[in-house]
User: What shape does this take?
Amino acid sequence: MGISRILIANRGEIALRIHRAAHEMGIETVAVHSTADADAMHVRLADHAVCIGPPAAGDSYLNVANIISAAEIAQADAIHPGYGFLSENAKFAEIVEAHDIAWIGPKPEHIRTMGDKVEAKRTAGALGLPLVPGSDGAVSDFDEARRISAEIGYPVIIKAASGGGGRGMKVCESEDQLETLMQQAGSEAKAAFGDATVYIEKYLGNPRHIEFQVFGDGRGNAVHLGERDCSLQRRHQKVLEEAPSPVISHEERMRMGEVCASAMRDMAYRGAGTIEFLWENGEFYFIEMNTRLQVEHPVTEMITGIDLVREQIRVADGKDLSCKQDDITFTGHAIECRINAEDPFTFAPSPGKISYYHAAGGMHVRVDSGIYAGYSIPPYYDSMIAKLIVYGRDRERCMMRLKRALEEMVIEGVKTSVPLHQALLEQDDVKSGDYSIKWLEEWLKTRES
Ligand code: ADP
Assistant: This one.
């Protein structure tokens, strides 16, 4: 038997990425699309296509009933959710499995646990992952909050249990602000997520964002594929990612990677996952786990040579992982630039028609994108239109190649973040890898003044 036709419940570059892995395995694909995406490349490349609704994502890419119907009509035997949309929706994963369709993703109970930040932190702690010092679960009592904050020391950060996208977070500098900020965080969280639960942790001053890629077969075997450094962020959104991290030694990578892989073995985790940490003064602090493929997964693929989507499909099909930890080696350096249709420095969205397109090419250059000349970028979805991923034998050569590739990339008709990436590559701190999660926003401020 085995998987023979995958419905891809997504759009854009990630839908193409999944289609490519499937075809390389001899598996057919079914694209789903909104009416706004009828001419999209993922629809053109797939073997079958089903329209699932009007442009608004809530009516199409998030429309569970229509997606399940599409899978039934097109006789898909598996669903890959990509990232975003329904990828971390435990209920959707359960519905897919209840229809006897293979879910190319983690077990629903693991999606659910990691989706609740208090629960995720408790689980991570129990599995031996290092945590940011803070409250043991939710805090509602002010006296308790004062006691905990005094113990861990100010500044502290108050976070919403069901938070996401950086909302419902308050940094508190001293005890006299604590009560007010807790109330504010709670009511913001209630308004945004329908849940006022908050917890407290130590606020780290100048950390890096370093995450580990893990992979499990769901039966107690798991490996790690090293780390990615995603510290260049704006408003908690990643802009550029690299692997390996410029600050992590091979010994540290293998030590921390094993801590992560071992946690996944204990959970009998299935599929791809990312364990995110803040890193400061040589210490890792768990912040959350993403139970899906990440946008930045290609940098890991470039330095390990392992196709993560292929592994996802294998594991969903009940097969073993294609490699053991000892088979996984890390060679060279890779960087990914997220290219958005937006003004490179004001970040104002710039949807519209692409009048001319020429993709970068050459040795070790990968462009993951669904755009083409004449394509109209719809205004309804995420502004990311391409990912440029470049490999080099070392970090310096990777950066030189990236600079060359960015020069080659031509996207006309809309504004893009290509000039932002070009400017970033000229900065000494970026060249030397000396940046924290605060660096990009501070640099943008100095440009304005
Ligand atoms: P969300 O799910 O809302 O994105 P995260 O817990 O992943 O929330 O945190 C998002 C970002 O907020 C982090 O990447 C980091 O920039 C900042 N942050 C979160 N927790 C802390 C902390 N304890 N200290 C300093 N910064 C933090």
Residues 390 and 401 are 7 Å apart (CA to CA). Residues 132, 157, 163-166, 201-204, 207, 209, 236, 278, 287-288, 437 surround adenosine-5'-diphosphate (CB under 6 Å). The chain has 15 helices and 20 strands.
